[in-house]
Design goal:
Strand content: under 5%
Structural class: mainly alpha
Protein name: Trigger factor/SurA domain
InterPro entries: Trigger_fact/SurA_dom_sf (IPR027304)
Number of strands: 0
Radius of gyration: 17 Å
Number of helices: 4
Oligomer: single chain
Helix content: over 70%
Largest sheet: none
Distance between the termini: 34 Å
Length: 92
């Protein structure tokens, strides 16, 4: 449960920072996922196990993937920029 709360806090904070992905970024990611799952037996099995269509799966997953993109942006633009390096006297 704590991981879900932590994720929600990160997503909300990153949205406030203006780092939420654009619709083009989200669409591009979904397109990549569609290509990777094309003709994939495990993916077909997942759909069967969940008893949902491919379209429904992508509708369910798109907001989750958008949040994943925003967390990745936050990590790259906030966390990595503030990590101290041994040879960096400014951040040490």
């Amino acid at each position: 449960m704590q991981r879900i709360v932590d994720r929600k806090i990160k997503v909300d904070a990153t949205r406030a920072m203006g780092l939420y992905p654009t619709s083009q970024e989200i669409e591009s990611y979904v397109k990549e996922q569609r290509e990777m799952s094309k003709d994939n037996a495990d993916f077909k099995s997942l759909l069967g196990g969940w008893s949902i269509s491919e379209s429904k799966y992508y509708n369910l997953m798109t907001p989750i993937w958008a949040d994943s993109i925003v967390i990745d942006k936050w990590y790259k633009q906030v966390v990595l920029q503030n990590i101290s390096k041994p040879d960096d006297p400014e951040k040490g």
